[in-house]
C-alpha cells in the first residue's frame, strides 16, 4: 500500500518527530511505500490564495503534487501537537489547500454546496497521532476534545475515509524517557494493526 504521512511540528527534536519517524520506519518494515512530508521543513505555504478557491484552476506544481498524493494514497497518517485545541496553522492550511472539491470531496449534481458532500479520497483508513499537555479527563470535560471531531468528522469522514484511528500521547511535558519509549512502541503496534505487513 502507499501511505501518506503528514507531520506538522517545527522542532526536529520534538516527540512528534520521533512519532513520525517510528511510523515511517514501521510502515517501510511492513513493506509499504511511504510518502513523507515534514511541512515545517518543507516550508509549506499554508495560506490558501483566493484564486485557488475556484474549482477548475491550474494549481502550483507543489500543491498539485500534494493533491494527487492525498487522492491516491491508500492510507493517510497525520502527526501533530495539540495547539489551542487545533492542529498547527501550517497543517490546517495544508487541509485548506489540498483537500479540494473535486478531489477530496464532491457535491452531488444539483447541490451547490449546501448539501452533504460525497467523499472522494481513495484511502479508507486514517491514523492521527497527537501530543498534548492536558490530562484526558480535563481535555474531555473542559474542552470537548475538538481534535477528535476535526479529524474524524470534519475532515476524514467528509472526504470518504470511514475508518479513523486516533492516539493521543499525554502528558508530554512531564513524561519520562521510559514512557516515551513505551509510547513509540504503541505507535509501532497501532501502525501494524492498521497497515499490516504486505503479503
Ligand atoms: C502554541 C501552543 C499551543 C498549545 N496549546 C495546547 C493546548 O491547547 N492543549 C494542550 O494540552 N497543550 C497545548 N500545548 C502544548 C503542546 O501540545 C505540547 O508542547 C506538545 O504536545 C509537546 O509535544 P512535542 O514534545 O513533540 O513538542 C501548546 C503548545 C504551544 C506551543
Describe this structure in words.
Pfam families: Flavodoxin_2. Keywords: Oxidoreductase. The protein has 199 residues and is an alpha/beta fold. It has one domain (2-194): Flavodoxin domain (Rossmann fold, 3-Layer(aba) Sandwich), CATH 3.40.50. Helices cover 38% and strands 19% of the residues. It is built from six helices and seven strands, in the order E-H-E-H-E-H-E-E-E-H-H-E-H. The protein has helices spanning 15-29, 61-72, 89-98, 136-143, 146-157, 177-194, and strands spanning 2-7, 33-38, 75-81, 105-106, 118-119, 125-131, 163-169. It has a five-stranded parallel sheet, sandwiched between helices. Strands 4-5 form a two-stranded antiparallel sheet. The longest helix is centred in the C-terminal third of the chain and has 18 residues, at 177-194. It is globular and about 55 Å long. The N and C termini lie close together (11 Å). The model has no long low-confidence stretch (mean pLDDT 97). Flavin mononucleotide binds next to helix 1.
Amino acid at each position: 500500500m502507499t501511505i501518506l504521512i503528514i507531520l506538522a511540528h517545527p522542532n526536529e527534536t520534538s516527540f512528534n518527530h520521533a512519532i513520525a519517524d517510528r511510523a515511517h520506519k514501521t510502515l517501510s518494515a511492513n513493506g509499504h511505500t511511504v510518502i513523507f512530508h515534514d511541512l515545517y521543513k518543507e516550508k509549506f505555504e499554508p495560506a490558501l490564495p483566493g484564486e485557488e478557491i475556484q474549482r477548475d484552476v491550474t494549481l502550483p506544481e507543489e500543491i498539485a503534487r500534494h493533491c494527487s498524493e492525498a487522492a491516491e494514497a491508500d492510507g493517510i497518517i497525520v502527526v501533530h501537537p495539540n495547539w489551542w485545541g487545533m492542529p498547527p496553522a501550517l497543517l490546517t492550511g495544508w487541509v485548506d489547500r489540498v483537500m479540494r472539491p473535486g478531489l477530496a470531496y464532491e457535491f452531488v449534481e444539483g447541490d451547490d454546496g449546501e448539501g452533504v458532500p460525497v467523499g472522494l479520497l481513495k484511502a479508507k483508513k486514517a491514523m492521527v497521532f497527537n501530543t498534548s499537555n492536558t490530562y484526558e479527563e480535563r481535555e474531555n470535560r473542559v474542552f470537548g476534545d475538538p481534535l477528535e471531531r476535526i479529524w474524524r468528522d470534519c475532515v476524514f469522514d467528509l472526504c470518504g475515509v470511514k475508518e479513523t484511528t486516533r492516539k493521543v500521547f499525554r502528558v508530554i511535558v512531564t513524561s519520562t524517557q521510559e514512557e516515551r519509549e513505551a509510547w513509540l512502541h504503541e505507535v509501532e503496534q497501532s501502525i501494524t494493526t492498521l497497515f499490516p505487513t504486505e503479503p
